[in-house]
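Workshop exercise sheet. Pairs work together: one partner reads the sequence aloud, the other fills in the structure field after running the prediction. Swap roles for the next sheet.
Pair: D.N. / O.F.
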Amino acid sequence: MLLRLLLLICAPLCEPTELFLIVSPSQPIEGNSMTLACKTEPPPRKLDVQLQFRFYKDGRPLGLDWDSIPELWIPAVWREDSGSYWCQAKTTPLRVKWSRRVQIQVHGVPISNVNLEIQPPGGYLMEGEKLVLVCLVTGGTGDITFFWYKGVLGLNLETKTQRSLTATFEIPVVMESDSEQYYCAADNGYGPRLSELVNITVRIPVSHPVLTLRAPGAQAVVGDVMELHCEVWRGSAPILYQFYHEDVALGSSSAPSGGGVSFNLSLTAEHSGNYYCEANNGLVAQRSEVVPLNIIVPTEDRKEVLTSRVMEVLLGISGPTTMALLFCCWLKRKIGSRSAGDPLRSLPSPVPQESTYLNSQGPEQLHPDYENVNVVSGDEVYSLAYCVQQEQQPAAGETRGSELVSDFRLSWNREDNQ
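Structure field:
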């Protein structure tokens, strides 16, 4: 009776059955899933027999405990998942069947298309900004080691290993010395792949320029050639310099490699005043402090300048006076020509006034009358003076046809205003 019971218990496993471990896919790729299936050949004849399964890798069990499901699904495998696998099946703790060992090799995908991107884009930064170098690949599996290099000789800046297709490296505050070529590399065990070189240019805004005036002697004299030198302490090239005199641009000059520039100026008396210069490298424009310049005029030149200015003043004020004089002369000549040509049609006698010379027995006195022609600045006054002379009454029997003579006199009266 007991023997028959034992035969019933061990019958499923005492039969000539074999366990097989089936791997799908047979050559798994990193990052993909993999399925392990434990099968018996031939399958159990009795349907009421319940088998328990368990899977192992390199002697370590996979999963927490035995399971009635003869399959194990692994969502993603990596190269470190490569190893020796097998499975077990049992009906009781005393009856366990082992499958044959299967060596599984997980394959990886080599790195492809390595690129280096920068933020901000364009490759031009101002000193003090943050530079971000992003290394990325479009193909590759497993853990990827990223490298960042500076310069063609490859000064290693940073190394990172992570299971990702992208990685970043930052320079929080860039300096002018960070202007260089950069590249990155990526390796997942199949050999490193390099990106293309990327140029990074860090530019420095110009500082306040300093203007220096250099004369041949201790003092600036009319006729000297003055050198105006403008220079900044720091700033990225190229730098454009502009020179100004009393806010009027004198000229400009460029420094392609940085440094300062000079501008030569042949001095005249009008060049006295304030000077400054401006520096601009495309990032910012800075202006220097104002530098005053007093130009010495030699005595001879000063006399010439004074004479010229006096002539200008005289011409300015004598123009109206000259016109008035010419008009008076023209008027006098015209009146005189009329008197000579037609004595009977001389100027009519002025209207007799009371207490004048009409009833006088002696020669009549000149009665002057004045009329201002023009009053100019200073102490000079020009006047038009004319006198009217009337002959005595004719005697009896004389013809009353005496001429009325008009005399015009132009006088230059000088009045002292003091």
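Discussion prompt: The longest strand covers residues 83-92. What would you look at next?
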